[in-house]
Amino acid sequence: MLGLLALLTAQAARALEIAFTAVAPGVYAYVGDTEGRTYDNEALNANIGLIATPQGAILIDSGATVRTAATLAAAAQRATGQPVRWVINTGTQDHRWLGNGYFVRQGIPVYAHANGRADMQRRGPEQLSANAPVLKDKQAGTEVVLPTHWIDGDDTELTLGGVTLRLVHRGGGHTPGDMMVYVPAHGVVFTGDVVYVDRILGMHPVSRSRPWLATFEALEALQPRIVVPGHGRVTDLAQAQRDTGELLRALRAHMRRAVDEGVDLGTAVRTFDARPFAHLKHAEVWLPQLANRTYLEVEQE
């Protein structure tokens, strides 16, 4: 019995297994869990990107804990044969940036958009508190550590080892700091939480559908060959449009009409045609909330 308990305890504390898969030459993705945050997935229910350069690897997002960040760094080294040289946070959800401390303590630059700074400062402690009962010992040592470099403006180019990245921001969306990372040489874009496929997108009090749609339109203008979404399988622009773009447009159009015609919130939410999006995972939970938040946002515009 003691041996069995020891085995079960060891299995429960086992580190998350992370392996990056190539999506283009020198460009990789890890596709995370599409369910909720759990002890086993270490709150990494999101996708992570990786880009190899002759001067080191660029990690797209740092995970929700320093433990996960260390696992990501080791997986990046295995995939590219290079240590992580830069980290880019694509947004201000916990799994995008709370692992920053692992890299900052090693002097590794961490980039994020300045529009997300206040949100990180305000919600970072809340995110740690919310994850603590789920992650338990796996959150040990994780603190709110802000990025070291802030990006301003809509479009910024960074180059490391001859590999150029275009960072695209249009005011946020899912979070105020949402920023896409485009690799022009390979037509690959890491969208962060701008794009969800296979599962329904989520909205929170900090989410805004108007800049979110503007960011999505910037994605369409890029015409990427490969889309690495924030959640769901690696895909193409067409599926991103079906699962995210069309939903954002439908929500805003319906709620705009409802507000202009004086339709009350309850009726507007009830009459939104959710059938085209019913196939998306968790649609039954999130769609009423998406409709509710979009109505309130449009009402204030």
From TrEMBL:
Keywords: Hydrolase, Signal. Residues 1-15 form the signal peptide. CDD domains: metallo-hydrolase-like_MBL-fold. Belongs to the metallo-beta-lactamase superfamily. Class-B beta-lactamase family. This is Glyoxylase-like metal-dependent hydrolase (Beta-lactamase superfamily II). Residues 45-231 form the Metallo-beta-lactamase domain. It comes from Tepidimonas ignava. One of its GO terms (biological process) is antibiotic catabolic process. GO terms for molecular function: hydrolase activity. The keyword Hydrolase applies. It comes from the Bacteria. Pfam families: Lactamase_B (PF00753). SUPFAM superfamilies: Metallo-hydrolase/oxidoreductase (SSF56281). InterPro entries: Metallo-B-lactamas (IPR001279), NDM-1-like (IPR050855), RibonucZ/Hydroxyglut_hydro (IPR036866).
